[in-house]
């Protein structure tokens, strides 16, 4: 069985300077860089290490780029695999790959593990199968569940692998299995449910106090009977919820707006010789819906057009032609120009 290996980048060479238009996400992710630069400090200060982050957003908006930038900023190895590389028919192969991936990352910690298209590996269980496809469904489902479980085990075991950060990326959060999603949504759910739990706990305390003839604090909690048991169960439940809350969180990478598009164009204009007469803000305004990837492509295309037109730098007319080529296609541009 050939074994896809994680692509490892000793140093990605990408930094937050290469990322534009998603400042909020970058701001939130700075925490991970601080941690990766000095995991021991977090440990010494008694701060729980950050676990995983799910990056959600449309294609080409910089999920992979920002993941690489985290590793690049911290100067740590970057282990990258696609979710589809874990999808196997043979039971146990996918989970073995997950184990292997995290094992290698732990050996070289601090490090970043990045799984792109994580939906391929962690799709929501369907629960629909017919008689004829029963055995196929079961084999595939069993394999997928084993792989997903292994991922959850690795994420839960991060305390033992301190210094490893997990990043997953998806365009389809709605497809993800709730087992993986739960922690991400958890901050909000956790708060709400905590409030309920606290109310219940308060009620139980009051009941316990009443039953125990007004004893307070530890005495009340120690009071025998159902109230005490419920309080204990509540505590266990909350601890369990807290554990899950720490497993992962979600960060949404949104498509860039006009200002973001301008910043992205500026980042990619650094690599081309651009005439000072080109007004990038005009393109940023007039290209709504263009992703970071498409804007990067625009600058590359404009440079190619400039070379073809024998210009010494990229002119506004080259930019216009590049926009046309990317929107209506080179053939049609050729016909129209020809
Ligand atoms: P997919 O969901 O298809 O995997 P993605 O969100 O991971 O897409 P990236 O692979 O990070 O997208 O982006 C592709 C390329 O587009 C990047 O290498 C970069 O050149 C450019 N790009 C995308 N977003 C940005 C951004 N926010 N700032 C600067 N460049 C960007």
From TrEMBL:
Name of the featured protein: ATP-dependent zinc metalloprotease FtsH
Biased composition (Gly residues): 211-226
Residue runs in coiled coils: none
Signal peptide: none
Function: Probable ATP-dependent zinc metallopeptidase.
Organism: Apostasia shenzhenica
Region (Disordered): 197-230
Highest rank taxon of the organism: Eukaryota
Domain AAA+ ATPase stretches: 49-195
Residues included from the entire protein: 408 to 745 of 996
Basic and acidic residues biased stretches: 197-207
Gene: ftsH
């Amino acid at each position: 069985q050939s074994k896809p290996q994680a692509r490892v980048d000793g140093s990605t060479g990408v930094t937050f300077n290469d990322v534009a238009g998603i400042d909020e996400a970058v701001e939130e992710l700075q925490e991970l860089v601080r941690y990766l630069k000095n995991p021991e400090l977090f440990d010494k200060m008694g701060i729980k290490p950050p676990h995983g982050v799910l990056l959600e957003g449309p294609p080409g908006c910089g999920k992979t780029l920002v993941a690489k930038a985290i590793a690049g900023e911290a100067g740590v190895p970057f282990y990258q695999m696609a979710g589809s590389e874990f999808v196997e028919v043979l039971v146990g192969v996918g989970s073995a790959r997950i184990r292997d991936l995290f094992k290698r990352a732990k050996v070289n910690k601090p490090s970043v593990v990045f799984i792109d298209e994580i939906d391929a590996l962690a799709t929501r269980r369907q629960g629909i199968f017919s008689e004829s496809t029963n055995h196929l469904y079961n084999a595939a489902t069993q394999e997928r569940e084993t792989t997903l479980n292994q991922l959850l085990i690795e994420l839960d075991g991060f305390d033992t692998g301190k210094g490893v950060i997990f990043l997953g990326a998806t365009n389809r959060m709605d497809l993800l299995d709730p087992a993986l999603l739960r922690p991400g949504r958890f901050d909000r759910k956790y708060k709400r449910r905590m409030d309920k739990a606290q109310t219940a706990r308060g009620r139980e305390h009051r009941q316990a106090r009443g039953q125990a003839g007004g004893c307070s604090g530890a005495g009340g909690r120690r009071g025998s009977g159902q109230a005490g048991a419920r309080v204990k169960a509540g505590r266990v439940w909350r601890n369990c919820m807290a554990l899950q809350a720490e497993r992962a969180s979600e960060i949404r990478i949104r498509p860039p707006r006009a200002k973001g598009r301008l910043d992205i164009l500026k980042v990619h204009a650094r690599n081309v010789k651009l005439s000072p007469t080109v007004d990038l803000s005009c393109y940023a305004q007039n290209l709504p819906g263009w992703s970071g990837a498409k804007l990067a492509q625009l600058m590359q295309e404009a440079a190619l057009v400039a070379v073809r037109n024998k210009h010494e730098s990229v002119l506004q007319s080259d930019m216009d032609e590049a926009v046309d080529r990317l929107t209506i296609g080179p053939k049609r541009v050729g016909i129209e120009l020809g």
